Amino acid sequence: MSRDVALLPATELLRLYRRGSLSPVEATQAALAQIRSHNEKLNALCWLDEEGALAQARESEIRWREQRPQGLVDGVPTTVKDLLLTRGWPTLRGSRTVRRDQPWNEDAPSVARLREHGAVLLGKTTTPEFGWKGVTDSPLTGITRNPWDPTKTPGGSSGGAAVAAATGMGALHLGTDGGGSIRIPAAFTGIFGFKQSFGRVPAYPLSPFGTVAHVGPMTRTVEDAALMLTVITEPDDRDVYALPYEKRDWRLGLDDGIRKLRIAYSPTLGGHRVEPDIAILVAAAVARLAELGAEVEQAEPDLTGVDEVFRVHWFAGAANLMSAIPADSRAQIDPGLQEVAAQGARFSLMDYFSAVKAREALGQRMAAFHRTYDLLVTPMLPLPAFEAGHEAPPDGKGGRWTNWTPFSFPFNLTRQPAATIPCGLTKSGLPVGLQIVGRLYDDATVLRCTRTYESTRAFQAPPLAK
After folding, report:
1. What residues act catalytically?
2. In which order are the strands placed within the sheet that holds 192-195?
3. What is the pLDDT of residues 426-436, one digit of tens each?
4. For residue 210, with 0-12 CB atoms within 10 Å meaning exposed, 13-18 middle and 19 or more buried, which class applies?
5. Under 8 Å between Cβ of 121 and 41
6. What domains are defined for the chain?
7. Using CA of residue 145, residue 149, residue 152, residue 155, what is the dihedral sign?
8. pTM
């Protein structure tokens, strides 16, 4: 029974609280039971505040009993990625170089909004060091594993959050995405992940990787993500890049369907090799979108030069990050991050400004593409989850994480909203994600399309959620 409660979406938990047939304490206990059962093997959470979570849940239970909920997510078990400041808890960012013994007196904007709305904060989820790569392992917290097959990676860098969502270690999960870090692990673990338009969710402090980095929801349902977005988009003046606040409930319009939406389908996004299992499942999902009323045609956006433009932005960000770490501590850093930072340090100022101009041109080309198409649909990843503990598939050509994530990082450069939703399992039983990208600032259409597709297939829990 506790497993069944743990896997309920936040919207259903709230409905049951309102009726008095379930309490926040029971929901929190169910999430904690999943953590106790599975976290040792999967390593989703690196910090757990069981006593604090139960105290918050008891306070929420009193509020619900008196029919005076504190906010939109009062009593919902929630986790926070360990890159985001959380008052009273250390934010170590997966690094041995961050001192645990310092004041932790501030919440990041998204954490503050969730706390204000009554969320029950369970703990911090694992991340690679400073969120630098597309898998989740670090010198500080070790290897995080996939609940569909613990020998495989869950992806990253929000891998801990994805595993927690997939296994019922809470209903709402905060992730970050600077090159795919929400969408990659969401696809590998069979959950929903949403990178909203840049600036929609206020962030503080800004990522050392700069304006490619977003904060967003990771959940088991689209409606939960829309609920979470309604909370975390509330304004915070610490983010100087934040969009003007748009007061709206992002759940409204979710069920309006996709009839007559113009969808461009790009099966390879410019010729990238996609494994046959994944290509078949994605093509079937696109056909389903057409059956649901969308006008679908195959089309390719012009992403010329995107790999190098992202590499300059990301590797220079790593160099910026490394420059703030005392020289006598740098040997403790993940060797891969040290290599990337060293490469980034070799870029000149003119190299960087050239990449900025190329990024602007890329954004302009995508804006022109979206004059014809409301949405772009692609595979989320070209391959299923591979062996844990490796930055890239060990049986491939090696290289950096960007080599196997060509569908994710272009849309960090363009700042567009992009989501991934499960669209089936490979023959070996691993999840596959469908990516849906919207025009800049049109987050609502992305949510509506993913919700429409989701209505045709229920969330499927992994074996290790049981």
Report:
1. 81, 157, 181
2. 45-48, 120-125, 77-81, 172-177, 214-219, 192-195, 418-425, 431-438, 375-379, 262-265, 295-298
3. 999 999 999 99
4. middle
5. no
6. 2-465 (3.90.1300.10)
7. negative
8. 0.98
